[in-house]
Amino acid sequence: MGGCKAVVLDPAGDVAAQQRDLLLQATGLMLLIIVPVMALTVFFAWRYRHSNKSARYEPDWDHSMQLELVIWGAPLLIIICLGALTWMGTHLLDPYRPLDRIAAGRPVPGSATPLEVDAIALDWKWLFIYPQYGIATVNEMAAPVDRPITFRITASSVMNSFYIPALAGQVYAMPGMETKLHAVINQPGAYKGFSANYSGAGFSGMRFTFHGVDDAGFDKWVSDIRTAGDALSRARYLELERPSENVPVRTFGAVDKSLYNAILNMCVQPGKMCMSEMMSVDARGGLGLAGIDNLLPLEYDKYARRGSTVFGTRPRPVAGLCAIPPEETGIEALAAPLSRPARDAAPASPSYSPVGLRRPEPSPAARPSNS
């Protein structure tokens, strides 16, 4: 045990330190009941043993108001204190709540710009995108000491859990959903991070290193990645997304600016409809029966799709309807949320349906006659 380090009880980040304090305070309050009960159990067993003839023997005793007040009053007070402590801690340590301090007695400076990190759980590795610097890494990340960090967390396939014990508590990563975490590292060093939620065969290898460095060290780390890393395009991401185990550290010196939004909306694959676009279509009434034909086969899928009598055995996503120009997306164009044509540019008799699809013009023979 001398070689073990209880990082949860000796963290390097202020958020994790506050969570540690909450754990110790709650444990101390509960021990105020547990310790006396355990001690009294031993005392009564010894005091009123069969061989102790000097102990008081009162077989007709059945009630004591003073004892009742102690038995019920003390636990009730402990529960009230625990409830108040937990309620305050739940709101003050909400992972979605921006930080208001770097450490005890040190508020966040007004000029401080939080470091933004997009964390994506893949099978079975972690991808970290730094949108402010245009870089990305696999199974490694770094952050300056005493600089607030804002994480946006999602997953590509199954649910995982993002956890750096020295930094803050664990937060779930779910496909098609975004969770957030605000944290800060206060001590330089290399800390372990991993997935705290079982996600398949390679789960045990979903580990990464988090480096807490000074500002100069972070700038050098970013510069080294920019000069030596490859570009992370949509095609490269689709290769990276494939299931793999015990993946070594990889770096990318350039990243598609819209890649994270495409991952979040599950539309990295070219031509696939984004969830935001699909929700926009649904908000305008949907595609109706015509939507059944609006499908494309997946170029890659983790497992073969189970049989279906409607769409067949091949996995098929919904095809995208709109795309934004490549010059607006960075490296490659991504599917964009569906938008209606501008009202001022629309003709007097619009040729667009409520969902943005162009209506087919009827042939002269099909038009009704006025005669």
Automatic annotation (TrEMBL):
Record-linked InterPro entries: CcO_II (IPR045187), CcO_II-like_C (IPR002429), COX_ARM (IPR010514), Cupredoxin (IPR008972), CuRO_UO_II (IPR034227), Cyt_c_oxidase_su2_TM_dom (IPR011759), Cyt_c_oxidase_su2_TM_sf (IPR036257), Cyt_o_ubiquinol_oxidase_su2 (IPR006333)
CDD domains referenced in this protein's UniProt entry, alphabetically: CuRO_UO_II
Keywords from the UniProt entry: Cell membrane, Electron transport, Lipoprotein, Membrane, Oxidoreductase, Palmitate, Respiratory chain, Signal, Transmembrane, Transmembrane helix, Transport
Location (main, coarse): membrane
Residue ranges occupied by any Cytochrome oxidase subunit II copper A binding domain in the UniProt entry: 112-224
Membrane association type: Multi-pass membrane protein
Compartments reported by the entry: Cell membrane
PROSITE patterns, alphabetized: COX2_CUA, COX2_TM
Composition-biased stretches (Low complexity): 335-354
Transmembrane segments: 29-48, 69-89
Region (Disordered): 335-371
Every Cytochrome oxidase subunit II transmembrane region profile domain range: 1-97
Keyword Iron-sulfur in annotation: no
The keyword Amino-acid biosynthesis appears for this protein: no
Family stated for the protein in its record: Belongs to the cytochrome c oxidase subunit 2 family.
Protein name: Ubiquinol oxidase polypeptide II
Organism: Ferrovibrio xuzhouensis
